[in-house]
Amino acid sequence: MAARIVAELGRPETPEETAARKAESSRVHRASRNTRNLLAALLVTLAVVAVIIFGVPRGELPAPEPIDVAAVAADTSAALERTVIVPEVPDDWAVNRASVDGDGSVRAWTVVYAPERGFVNVAQGFDADAAWPTRVLSGSGATGTTTLDGIEWSVYEVSDPATAGNISYALSTPAGTDTILVYGATDAATATAVAEALSDDVRALRAEDS
After folding, report:
1. Rg of the chain taking only CA atoms, in angstroms
2. What single-letter DSSP state applies at residue 24?
3. Which terminal Cβ of the chain has fewer Cβ within 10 Å, N or C?
4. What is the pTM of this model?
């Protein structure tokens, strides 16, 4: 076969030129194919993302069922065969938890409330020893006492809430063999109001032990 005539040179191309031309043609073809493959892969990726964004059903998680403190307290009382307090708090306070837990030595019926700011826990330590409130409060001891509705409460003003689980104020009082503890990231007025609402429960527990 006659050698290909190179128009610019006016003569047949040499074997070297032929090889170079074919190599360049192959390179251009491969580059073109790689570009097409890259675009195809990009389109596939965009399609998958579009399916994820627009095709997967989305929606907000359903709100948790509100906790009926009185009902949980009744069940707990029946299971433990002992009186369990039911705190009276403002209706707009959410309840995050109502259960029996403990520090290893004392089990406590604890209700965790979420008022507009901070949190308030109401705990009934079953057969609690005198040091139980201090343990719950990460070592913070009583700083004084106050009398609310004829009942004396120990006052705990926590100087460094960051070291006590953000607890800033607490009140405790013995109630029969148990101890009632009101504590949380709250102020004295709020804790006092909760403690005063527990007066009848405290008296009832003391009467049971008399």
Report:
1. 38
2. H
3. N
4. 0.70
